[in-house]
Amino acid sequence: QASGRSADAMASSGEVQRSLQAVAQGLRWTYALLWQLCPDQGALVWAEGHYNGAIKTRKTVQPAVAQAQAQAPAAEAADQARSRQLRELFDSLAREAAAGGGPGFRDVHGCAQEARRPSAALAPEDLTETEWFYLMSASYSFPPGVGLPGRAFARGGHVWLSRANEVDSKAFSRAILARVLFFS
Predict the structure, then answer these.
(1) Quick check: is 171 in a domain?
(2) Is residue 81 part of a domain?
(3) Owning domain of residue 78
(4) Helix 73-97 vs helix 129-137: angle between axes, to the nearest 10 degrees?
(5) N or C: which end of the chain has fewer CB within 10 A?
(6) What is the structure's pLDDT at 114?
(7) Is residue 21 in a domain?
(8) How many domains does the chain have?
(9) DSSP H/E element including 26
(10) One-character DSSP codes across 54-103
(11) Is the pTM of this model over 0.70?
(12) Is 49 contained in some domain?
């Protein structure tokens, strides 16, 4: 699901994270993303996200079902930590791609960002396919009316996606990436 709601409408980053976590866990989604308008680019860019899928460690992959069965406060904290680590890894990779970065940098979308300290706990080789898809989603931007998030923004409402594996790449621009990672 994509929503035209801006991250500025939420009170704090913590509230955004808790809301995304509640949606992803309550609906048993692999992830939930919030897009916001980047005034520099005039397009929606990834603002925040919560990853609720399988987690790969250097030795094993923990399925999302096993994580959900834990249902302890520690498991929720681990989900939040993994989402934060994925965002920090993306920011770190974006800084490298932006040729040096510094205290402030422009992300892959061209929007000004504050530098975040990279996570020493996570490296690209530590990711599952679904974590890669989640992370790669951050590099997308959607002008109003383009792609599912852009259409939701232009309409000022929600756009629901079902049977994602059958969706045309014109409607769902990340479909090609999803097919490569999950259906080949």
Answers:
(1) no
(2) yes
(3) 13-97+121-141
(4) 60
(5) C
(6) 54
(7) yes
(8) 1
(9) helix 13-26
(10) -EE-SS-EE-HHHHHHH-SHHHHHHHHHHHHHHHHHHHHHHHHHTTT--S
(11) no
(12) yes
